[in-house]
């Protein structure tokens, strides 16, 4: 997380933004557009990442070893299926090492976080077939989950070695 602004102040502002976004959606049926910022904050908080400066080309955060992580976020009601849902564009021309997908519920509370490394994403994006995937770099959430692995929450019934976060 950034050290210039107190983390508690950011958390407080995001709590306010969540309340406003939820009320706005209830009134208008339209999203307010805070999903990306909330997802980045939650990934940093839950996985111990350092957020990059705003508009850093290619990545949103780094881990303790310096890996560059792009963060994609989706707010999807718990009762809605993931089928048909897509990530935003992933630009293969920019510098990044892996992509995190933060899935949140309709209250912008994190439900799960997945990670996929660059080689797996490149293979999926360059695979012939889908026009949306090939032209816009937009992977389906179900595809992303199949080529990546869940890094949060850690599953309690897995062996210790399988329970370690991918963030190295």
Give a brief rundown of this model.
This protein is of the alpha+beta class and 168 residues long. The protein is built from five helices and six strands, in the order H-H-E-E-E-E-E-H-H-H-E.
Structure characterization notes:
By secondary structure, the protein is of the alpha+beta class. The protein has a single domain, classed as PvuII Endonuclease, Chain A. Helices cover 34% and strands 18% of the residues. It is built from 5 helices and 6 strands; from the N terminus they run ααβββββαααβ. The chain has helices spanning 7-28, 35-47, 118-126, 131-136, 141-147; strands at 50-51, 61-62, 68-75, 98-104, 110-117, 149-152. A 6-stranded mixed β-sheet has the order 1-2-3-4-5-6. β2 and β3 (68-75) form a beta hairpin. The protein starts with 6 loop residues before the first helix and ends in a 16-residue tail after the last strand. Mean pLDDT is 87; it is low at 159-168.
Topology of helices and strands:
Blueprint: H1 7-28, H2 35-47, E1 50-51, E2 61-62, E3 68-75, E4 98-104, E5 110-117, H3 118-126, H4 131-136, H5 141-147, E6 149-152
